[in-house]
């Protein structure tokens, strides 16, 4: 029977990012990642299909957090207020000790087209989860998807700022501010 | 010396889409595509790197059309008016005889994750081209990229309507209307 490994997923993510940074994404093997994390390959494959997926570990948790928070927003909340609540719920999980993951993640993804494509898919999934949750609140199209896309954009822009080594603000704070800035910029469009 | 083949690129696109529709994307070979178009494999490879790229033939032409039109928009045009001019220039090239291409393209892309990822990249490139062109007009961030992304979204939403067999409107008309609707929906966000 499989032995329970405390915090295996996070250990694998950290080990993978260390190795990708040290020796490159292409040459790192699943065996090396498991080894560095002090785990077996079997444990690795219980958590991830391949090394690429390690970089997108949070996708399911994140889409669920966003959708649940939109569902739980107060009845009269506007679409963007519901999205704001969802982003608060998501960003609260990005505690300061996880910033290092963000710092290392960015250059690895930026260096590989296949990872950029996968990242684009994750981004679309996050927007899709919020759009679906807004539809359940009877927000019509295209309002629902516009609010969701604006929220996802705020999150990613803020994440880049958060992962900057010089930054000392929380991701929640940065995401809220970015969403406000995007909202304000919309009025200058036309 | 290479013989000049009139309209080779469009013939290859049409042949590829016929074959992808008839017998599937996966099983169709470059040889079959060239054959159906009445051309040689050598001619195929002068136009496309592989069969996937046939589906994204217009990317370079389209990004150039968008960027040029934004550059040529009147000085006082707002960001969204410049984007509107760019979309007019782009959609004018989608004449009615090219609708069949759109009708066939959609299901092929929808059926393959690798094609969806490639399509997401093309979409990002179109938005990027408009964003860069707006920057050259001194439109600041995030206004420039928001206007560009709204424009690209209008184009893709309208393209889906245009490729619907029941549609009888031009892509220009549909794109303008969709952009107006998106613009109006922004005020309902918050």
UniProtKB/TrEMBL annotation, chains A, B:
Q: Give the HTH tetR-type domain ranges.
A: 6-66
Q: Which domain of life is it from?
A: Bacteria
Q: Name one GO molecular function term.
A: transcription cis-regulatory region binding
Q: Which UniProt keywords apply?
A: DNA-binding, Transcription, Transcription regulation
One Pfam family linked to the record: TetR_N
- Which parts of this chain does the entry mark as a DNA-binding region? 29-48
Record keyword Transcription regulation present = yes
Q: What is this protein called?
A: TetR family transcriptional regulator
Q: Which organism is it from?
A: Streptomyces antioxidans
């Amino acid at each position: 029977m499989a032995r329970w490994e405390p915090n295996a997923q996070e250990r694998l993510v950290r080990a993978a990012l260390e190795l990708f940074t040290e020796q490159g994404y292409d040459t790192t093997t699943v065996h090396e990642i498991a080894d560095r994390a002090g785990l077996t390959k079997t444990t690795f494959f219980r958590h991830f299909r391949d090394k690429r997926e390690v970089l997108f570990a949070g996708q399911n948790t994140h889409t669920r957090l966003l959708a649940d928070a939109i569902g739980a927003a107060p009845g009269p909340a506007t679409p963007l207020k519901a999205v704001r609540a969802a982003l608060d719920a998501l960003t609260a999980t990005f505690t300061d000790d996880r910033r290092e993951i963000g710092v290392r993640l960015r250059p690895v993804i930026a260096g590989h087209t296949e990872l950029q494509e996968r990242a684009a898919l994750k981004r679309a999934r996050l927007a899709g989860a919020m759009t679906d949750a807004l539809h359940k609140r009877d927000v019509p199209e295209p309002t629902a998807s516009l609010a969701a896309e604006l929220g996802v954009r705020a999150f990613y822009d803020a994440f880049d700022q958060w992962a900057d080594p010089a930054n000392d603000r929380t991701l929640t704070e940065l995401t809220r501010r970015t969403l406000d800035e995007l909202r304000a910029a919309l009025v200058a469009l036309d």
